[in-house]
């Protein structure tokens, strides 16, 4: 995009803004790399001191983002007469920095300091509480975090629901008003579908996974599939961690991790495909956005849509396994000797209500999210208090999933998110699923033989489509703009509902 | 060390200086880590853009080190009335920053800019020239580098020889006047010793290394010896690169690399021991110096003394192999089936004049350095010009080593150092050898059964001695202060001369 010629003040502000953006992004890129290093590579004795070094760099990024310089530049560039004349790319950059600047500036420094100390302590308390199944130990911290978040919501401001202010951090522009009906539809249909599956009583042979799959072979197979499904191994790596993640350094350096478990071949397999979805997204961002705040994905929800799309819509499809199963079988001939591809496909699509979110299947996963969403909303609006959480949690688990945890460790204590103040984060996971089904429906319209491509192990056209319609844009568009541009309509849960009904009708012969 | 109470201005300056030192060191620590990452881990497509990110961080470190803030702080802290009252640690920190500040500030910005561009181009030109054996292609760059270095020497200032100003960058305080007699003695004795060895005509069985040693087994053996010789694997790593190096992140995170060659088991073996010498040094620095400029080794020469000590004095000793050879044999039973430990010991101490410095043995290595030292001195003083280099090089090779390279690629073009402006660097390598023999002589006085410890595979006492006498101090002392403190006298080449004569008399039965 060409930039029109501005008067010297604006021109100078634009150049200064570009340099500041570049510096912040360079530092963030370095922080991304060293974060990865400390989780994946660093020897343990150096980590404590190194955390102080990265702390210094993080503080610098924060200072630059809320500096007087940034404030002055944003004031010039967002003035009504100047902003309209900016090109789309600059507008998007200004939008990103402005949102962060305003949020950060609105919190008084001492309040933020207090909050930072609290979340560090709360994280430790949560770890201990989970280890000892001791919710009361965590409760006072959680209460304070909820208090802070209620305060922050008031400070940030919102139109209808205080939770909107928190949602906005993860999915810019999203509100309870828009989300409630989407989630209600998904929840009701999922509960109904789960009931139907359970009433049908048909079993899948997921016991085939209860065998030893040599880890070295698993590694080879994971490395075998990554480039085929579209991950560029010359622009990335695959390593191992207990908690898998994808970390971007830049578009030419995206690092995935996965976890190999000998008695659970599914863990690494779908974990790797999931993280590859995140990673391919970042590898495909327009190189012009590199060294700028636009270099990353549009939002948590959109990002999750790309990982879920690859993991579920692609990676748990019949065609995917028609292509890959003979390969998998050649890696594990004994373990899969008597398992047909049809059985394998059904096995990887087993539905089984379980207590732990991160182990949930494609259908029940969203119900876990619904529970957290409803609790968060009620906490922030003041309908419930932190002390009510174990009871509320267990009651909702029973209501939606038909099971109740015996311990808080397997219930309300299972997730780290609240301990670092990440209230508003959970909806992203289900948003990802909703987005991904909507994207699936569009891509199938535009590439009618979509699943044939997968069945032939050809991912080029599919990845090219995703790149063109979604990935290349980075943060150029807001999530809502992006999904409308890519699919022609706003977020619609209908497609996920249909997708799930169709898939499980087939898998379970409903 | 306790700090006395100063007036508020000085007290404030001290606090500010501490924070600035911490910030610079934090950034340097991050730069160290990401430099390692880019050489060892990073996928290739991301490196170009990431170099810009680290460039931003490097620039920031430079800016902080020569900032007005630094200048003002140094002015306060080095004023005669204040400096004398500082404690030793602060004095050392001030000394380090002052030296860098003065050097950097003395070069006009545009001259430095020009020089930076030149060295970047010269490095490319050198790579091409070496690949194509084309010295004339490199010559114009080298001429300009020499011009710059002559200019810098005048700007930095010196008392007797302009080369002193350059030496000082690598070995603070060292001069031609002190170095000339040390090197003359070493050169003469080495040439004589080499002649004796060649006249003796006795061969070692180094052909045993011309066999295939499985790389996986080599890796295992390298990992086996590292913790035994004193490298803490929980405070470090061992990885692979073409050019081995040691990189410190902090004292709890020191990363070594080595290179495995199937037909050259010596390469990784002695490379790893060498780098471990560097690495153990940094692991042993007093943790109180962490997050400060004192956290690293005293000088290039002292650092090299620690790697050479471990590689040569320890790692090529008879006792070392008395202990380790049975282990090595268990890793490579076939290759070493008919080789006795005495033969193996003699083989790893083979002397053979060769063209390439990095492949040279313990004796002839110093002669390679003498050639470079004499050339550098003559270039800087104007006795010779860059165009004379191939002829001078070949003539000196013939004179000292008795061989002449057929191509400049195997002669004057072999080293990278001059292309990045590193004139004054080479002497560090032989200084390391001289220091290490002097240290050996002291440690043998204080631990009379030094070589018995090695023969028993017990390195605790030896490493504790090195830690106490040398390693712990980091940059607290200048190299000269440190060697006097540790060995009771200034640098003396006599000990290396004796050591070499003794060793080779034995190996070659002179």
From TrEMBL, chains A, B:
<keyword id="KW-0479">Metal-binding</keyword>
<comment type="similarity">
    <text>Belongs to the peptidase M32 family.</text>
</comment>
<dbReference type="GO" id="GO:0004180">
    <property type="term" value="F:carboxypeptidase activity"/>
</dbReference>
<keyword id="KW-0378">Hydrolase</keyword>
<dbReference type="InterPro" id="IPR001333">
    <property type="entry name" value="Peptidase_M32_Taq"/>
</dbReference>
<protein>
    <recommendedName>
        <fullName>Metal-dependent carboxypeptidase</fullName>
        <ecNumber>3.4.17.19</ecNumber>
    </recommendedName>
</protein>
<comment type="function">
    <text>Broad specificity carboxypetidase that releases amino acids sequentially from the C-terminus, including neutral, aromatic, polar and basic residues.</text>
</comment>
<dbReference type="Pfam" id="PF02074">
    <property type="entry name" value="Peptidase_M32"/>
</dbReference>
<keyword id="KW-0645">Protease</keyword>
<keyword id="KW-0121">Carboxypeptidase</keyword>
<keyword id="KW-0482">Metalloprotease</keyword>
